[in-house]
Design goal:
By secondary structure, the chain is an alpha/beta fold. It is 44% helix and 17% strand. It folds into two domains: 161 residues, D-Maltodextrin-Binding Protein, domain 2, CATH 3.40.190; 114 residues, Periplasmic binding protein-like II (D-Maltodextrin-Binding Protein, domain 2, 3-Layer(aba) Sandwich). Helix 2 packs across helix 10. It is globular, with a radius of gyration of 23 Å. Belongs to the UPF0065 (bug) family. Pfam families: TctC.
Length: 323
Amino acid sequence: MNKRTMLHGLCAAALSLCTALPALAGPWPERPIRLIVPYPAGGLTDIVSRIVGDELGKALGTSVVVDNRPGAGGQIGLQALLQAPRDGYTVALVVPATMVTLPLTNANYKIRPLEQLDLITIAVDTFLTLVADRKLGVSTVQQFAEYARKNPGRLNYGTPGAGTSFHFNNVILAQKLGINTQHVPYAGEVQMLNDIAGGQLQYALVSNAGKTFVESGQVTALAVTSSQRVRSMPGVPTFKESGIDFISDGWVGYAAAKGTPQPVRARLHAAFVQALRAPAVSSKLAEMGYQVVANQPDQFRQIVHESSKRYSELLTTGAVKLD
């Protein structure tokens, strides 16, 4: 190799390195951040992201634009993230469905989260509420478990679909309680809750969608899966208070595309943590019943890994059936 060829190669390599790291060329950020929410506007994930996004913009000194990209179980939104430049100006919301259950249960789901995403932080832990048909005559988890054990195979529980995180969590709960019940998949939570209120379904783990049914007395709330009582339903005990070691896999987190420069990821993480811990944000989220987490990226990755392993085992053993 002559000197001219070597010099040309070194220049090309240097140019390639410079173009690969555009986010490090000057102050960051220099323009608005796009926060992709792969679900429709008005839902839980959208509301949380708009609360966090306003404060995130203040922490970064720029505006944060929430971009709703629903469809294909969240895949459309995450594909938009992966197609954007890896410069930190596009981040996306992720949840257990997009990070854990869909990669395990849906052959058409092409996103490989731990391979294609740089995780930033879990914003909040969400929770589920165990609700039951009032006609069962139970008011505690222990009474419910005793009733179910005396009637093996006779109680039906609902979920918003086979293979959802609701389904996995119900199976885990049944194992912990030592009960044998039957799964009935629904298209959504509202019809499921209506059937519990009407006596056609015996119980379910539900999201915040169940709050109005609980407050109106249409269903009985037995316990919440959070680590502490939630402000929105202070009269409902936790499973831990009820003597059951059960906390559901429920959270809302944020991620960038794999390959985002480390200094930019660090800046994003610090800004998200600052935003989440701001009193105005944490108070609003607490009113919704959600506890701020704001953990480290490696902790986030470990949670996803452990959930994936646990759910995979449930599929392998046949405890969770997808058909």
